[in-house]
Amino acid sequence: MTKDITYRRIYEESSPEDGRRVLVDRVWPRGMRKEDAHLDEWLRDVAPSTELRRWYGHEPGRFAEFRRRYLAELREPERRQAVDRLRDIAGHDRLTLLTATRDVEHSQAAVLAEWLTDPGRSRA
Predict the structure, then answer these.
(1) Fewest CB atoms less than 10 Å from the CB: which of 22, 56, 66, 119?
(2) Neighbours of 7 (CB within 10 A)
(3) pTM (2 decimals)?
């Protein structure tokens, strides 16, 4: 099982080293044309809920609580299919998680990368 998982902004230039490119945002990135995204998949259902995303507001001071709540959301039954799909991709291919968020270190992509790489360490 491979665990070569990275994350970055969707607006950055794609690279052959990206492997599978998966968008993990709930809404389509502003100003990005679909043909320019070079995506393999868009897994909206693995993104934080609208309510959680709005509460968080990308405030770094709320990141620890955002991370805790987001990991709890990932365990919800309605997310099972998207979560299993992401785990499957991560288990077989190099994976780049994409987000439109400016601060990728404090994003759901960062939480997902850590969670997929070391699930035991990422328990909420």
Answers:
(1) 119
(2) 22
(3) 0.90
